[in-house]
Each structure stands twice: as structure tokens, then as C-alpha cells.
Amino acid sequence: IVQQIYIIYKHSMIKPTNIVYMGMGEPFLNYREVVKSLLIITDKNGFGISSKRITISTIGLKGKIKKFTEDIIKPENKNLRNLKIALSLHSTDNELRKSAIGVFPSHQEGMPLALLEMMATGLPVVASNIPEIATIITDGYDGLLFEVGNVDDLAEKLQRVLSDETLRKKLGENARKTVLEKYATPLSKSYGEFYKNLVKTKI
């Protein structure tokens, strides 16, 4: 996993700023290696990429999300505490988008743009109740909040969303509405800065 990132960096000489674990099989089936790679790429002596900019896309293997949440709160894994999880159910048709869930077990955030981006697509989200997120999400209206570091509370909220299609639809629709009404300008500025920097890099 780390080698793939290094090869991209070696050939482009551009350090990756955002990483999504997906399209390589279910990441949590390769749990140990995924965690090992995360520790390397977030370490200041590795790539030094902030965990806020890393997302793991998973189908939600039984017990794995709980284990991951327990592992990232260990002192030796402090660099991983702001990782994002994109949770989706297996589907053989086009219902996948309807059953996808964004999970944010963050312990701290700045302006959580990744959260706003997911909400803007109409994705239902389950997030920790840290102040930076609780000021954006109204619990039960446009997302569900769980007590930060409380694995059982996270599991209960995930179960609620996964088992209730009506709730997923409501949270997703309201999440998009919230972003469009309150946060469209910060997102626009963020993308504007991204493209300006991209043009400068190319030049």
C-alpha cells in the first residue's frame, strides 16, 4: 500500500494530500496491513499526511469497525484519530448510493470540509459529537452524533441508520439542505484555492 503511494510521488514529485482506501478489495479484510500503512503515511518521518485527509471505504465487516475504533484511541495510534470511514452496504443494483453512510469518528477537527462534501452529496452521516462537528450537524435532523470515543454509542447509531431506509433518506436530504443553505461559500472557497494551487503546481 505504501509502495503504491511512493511510486506516485516518485514519478510526479507531488506529495499526496488526500488518500482514500478503496478499489483494492475490502480494506478491513487486510486489517493489519491497512493499519500498518496508515501509521507509516501519517508519521512525520513517512509522508506526514494528516489523518483528517484519509478515508477508508468499507462494507462494514462484523466487528471490524468496532475494533478499528478501539484501536485508534490507543496512545500509540494517536495519529489516526481523525480518519474518516465511508460505510456502504453490498448491493447488486443501483441502491448502493442510497445505503451508503459517512462515518466520522474524529477526536478533533478544524473546518471539516470532508464532512461537508459528503453531506452535500446527500449522504447520511454518523459523526462524533466534538464541538467542530456538533455546530454543523443537528443530531437526528441532518445526521446522527455519538459520544466521541464511545464505541458502543457509535455501534448503536450505525445500527439505527443501517436498519432504517426512511431515516437514511431523511438524514441525507436534510444534510444536503444544510450544506446548501449554510456552507456553500466555504466549500466554494476551498475548491477555488485547490484549483489555484493546482495551476501554480503545473506551471
What features would you describe in this structure?
α2 links the parallel β1 (19-21) and β2. α3 (64-72) runs antiparallel to α7 and α5 packs across α8 (165-202). The two termini are 30 Å apart. The protein has 203 residues and is of the alpha/beta class. Mean pLDDT is 77; it is low at 90-99. A six-stranded mixed sheet has the order 1-2-3-4-5-6, sandwiched between helices. The chain is built from eight helices and six strands; from the N terminus they run αβαβαβαβαβαβαα.
Question: Outline of this structure?
Answer:
It is built from 8 helices and 6 strands, in the order αβαβαβαβαβαβαα.
Output the structural class. Answer: alpha/beta
How much strand? 5-15%
Distance between the termini: 30 Å
What is the H/E order?
HEHEHEHEHEHEHH
The coarse silhouette is: globular
For the structure shown, list the relevant keywords.
6-stranded mixed β-sheet; 11% strand; 203 residues; alpha/beta; globular; 8 helices
